């Protein structure tokens, strides 16, 4: 049937190209017979909202905020925020996920202004704000704004003249803390000046930022070149560019260093922007970047000095990126 129609249409086109005009009525194919299920798009009456949705056999498709999103019905039921399914005080699920039918489908869907209502087979009603769905959809995550950063080398950082924060301002004012955090989030490093040279004041500073993680070295600790621990940092050998705690399952997010006493020469700190280096690899050798971000490596710390006997292993790629927006968030 289709071959005959295409052949007939082709002959008509040839005739038109030759200058002839023929008026003839063509029978339209019955598209409904080609699909087992009808497809209906539901549109909002408000042009400003610009929202439409489509109910498929196994998922719900939503067009809103210039984003096309897909939600499995079981996900929509499991993430219900009603009082019987979700504890809004603890932000924890009350619903037993195992009780949700994997093939569940809503009986009805309706939109009231900016809220979608799903009525399930047992009569339970789930409601979702459209903006919440965008924020929590996989497609919405892809569009999420990446943490602003300033990638730097020595020249860039020197020209930026990033200000340090005074210790008292850092501890006692929101402005001082804000300046420190802005510097840290933008550049990955930040400096606080005029900190008294004691472990107690260093700890006080660290607690102003976040909780302090207990490690095999303790909560807060001194280190000097006495080789009291099986680590190069406890020797007089120079430490070149490196990343710390790669052998932790979750490497440290923020490290605080404070020189309490210095005698003699040497001991300078070398800082490198690993994110800048990673960006250079991405631009110049994307295949190598992909390799470093996908192949997990075993990172080890082996220590047998005095009473310290530790063997720690952390597994993961050198470059860790979020799969939804390809944002680099960790370097081992």
Describe the structure.
- This is Trimethyllysine dioxygenase, mitochondrial.
- Homodimer.
- Residues 161-323 form the TauD/TfdA-like domain.
- Its cofactor is Fe(2+); L-ascorbate.
- With 332 residues, the chain is α+β, with helices and mostly antiparallel strands.
- It folds into two domains: 38-142, 2-Layer Sandwich (NE0471 N-terminal domain-like), CATH 3.30.2020; 195-331, Clavaminate synthase-like (Double-stranded beta-helix, 4-Layer Sandwich), CATH 3.60.130.10.
- Helices cover 28% and strands 20% of the residues.
- It is built from ten helices and 15 strands.
- It has helices at 2-17, 73-78, 130-136, 138-142, 154-160, 167-172, 174-187, 199-209, 274-284, 286-294; strands spanning 41-43, 52-55, 59-64, 67-72, 86-87, 92-93, 108-112, 115-119, 125-129, 165-166, 192-193, 297-305, 308-316, 319-321, 328-331.
- Strands 1-2-3-4 form a four-stranded antiparallel sheet. Strands 7-8-9 form a three-stranded antiparallel sheet. A two-stranded antiparallel ribbon has the order 5-6.
- A hairpin with a 6-residue loop joins strand 14 (319-321) and strand 15.
- Helix 9 crosses helix 10 (286-294).
- The model is unreliable at 1-39 (pLDDT under 50).
């Amino acid at each position: 049937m289709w071959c005959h129609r295409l052949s007939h249409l082709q002959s008509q086109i040839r005739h038109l190209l030759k200058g002839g005009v023929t008026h003839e009525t063509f029978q339209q194919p019955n598209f409904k017979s080609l699909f087992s299920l009808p497809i209906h798009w539901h549109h909002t009456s408000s042009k400003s909202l610009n929202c439409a949705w489509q109910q498929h056999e196994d998922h719900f498709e939503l067009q809103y905020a210039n984003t096309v999103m897909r939600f499995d019905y079981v996900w929509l039921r499991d993430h219900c925020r009603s009082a019987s399914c979700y504890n809004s005080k603890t932000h924890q699920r009350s619903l037993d996920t195992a009780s949700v039918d994997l093939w569940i489908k809503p009986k009805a869907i309706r939109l009231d202004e900016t809220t979608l209502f799903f009525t399930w087979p047992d009569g339970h009603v789930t409601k979702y704000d459209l903006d919440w769905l965008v924020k929590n959809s996989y497609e919405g995550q892809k569009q999420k704004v990446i943490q602003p950063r300033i990638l730097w080398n020595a020249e860039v950082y020197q020209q930026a003249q990033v200000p340090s924060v005074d210790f008292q301002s850092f501890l006692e004012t929101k402005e001082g803390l804000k300046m420190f955090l802005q510097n840290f989030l933008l550049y990955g490093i930040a400096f606080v000046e005029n900190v008294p040279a004691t472990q107690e004041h260093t700890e006080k500073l660290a607690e102003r930022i976040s909780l302090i993680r207990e490690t095999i070295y303790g909560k807060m600790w001194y280190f000097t070149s006495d080789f009291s621990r099986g680590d190069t940092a406890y020797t007089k050998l120079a430490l070149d560019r490196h990343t710390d705690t790669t052998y932790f399952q979750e490497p440290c997010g923020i490290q605080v260093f404070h020189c309490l006493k210095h005698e003699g020469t040497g001991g300078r700190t070398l800082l490198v922007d690993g994110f800048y280096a990673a960006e250079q690899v991405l631009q110049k050798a994307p295949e190598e970047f992909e390799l470093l971000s996908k192949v997990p490596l075993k990172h080890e710390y082996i220590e047998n000095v005095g009473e310290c006997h530790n063997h720690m292993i952390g597994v993961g790629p050198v470059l860790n990126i979020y799969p939804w927006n390809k944002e680099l968030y960790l370097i081992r």
